[in-house]
Amino acid sequence: MERPVIFSCNGESLVGVVHPGIDSGEVGVVIVVGGPQYRVGSHRQFVTTARYLAKAGFPVFRFDYQGMGDSTGASVHFESIKPDIVAAISAFKEQCPSLKSVVLLGLCDGASAISMNLDELSDVKGAILINPWVHDEVTKDEAFLRGYYLKR
């Protein structure tokens, strides 16, 4: 059964949901949301994904980082959510003690936050990055020209 979890990060209370998985496997998935979304996701995409993965045997944890959804605190920019990700992984492992490693699944800003911090997250064995936000000063003008001016 899915169950809510309240855990701490930088003195704030963060809210997550554990989907234990059928066999409480050794590899779990932590969903890191992006943009101004919370743990449910637009059109309930994170709920649907978590339930699908749990049914396939993978425990899943989805959570609201500081200032989002039901978590307390001021809103945090995706470049600063590493402590939230670390706290979520720790809370997930407490809830599912059979876990040996996790895979992070992130959308947009969440995917970018994962990629920026992946080398510093020792318990993470993989990442699924969906539509990461990237910015490059070299290609910015070309993208703006192609995506904005040529349409006009």
Strand order of the largest sheet: 1-2-4-3-5-6
Helix content bin: 25-40%
- Bulk shape: globular
Counted beta strands: 6
Determine the N-to-C terminus distance: 52 Å
Question: Given the structure, what is the number of helices?
Answer: 4
**Arithmetic mean of pLDDT:** 88
Q: Any low-confidence stretches, pLDDT <50, length ≥5?
A: none
Structural class estimated from helices and strands: alpha/beta
Order of helices and strands: EEEHEHEHEH
Q: DSSP strand (E) fraction? A: 25-35%
Strand count, sense and barrel status of the largest sheet are: 6 strands, mixed
Radius of gyration: 16 Å
Give a quick precis of the structure.
The protein has 152 residues and is α/β, with parallel strands linked by helices.
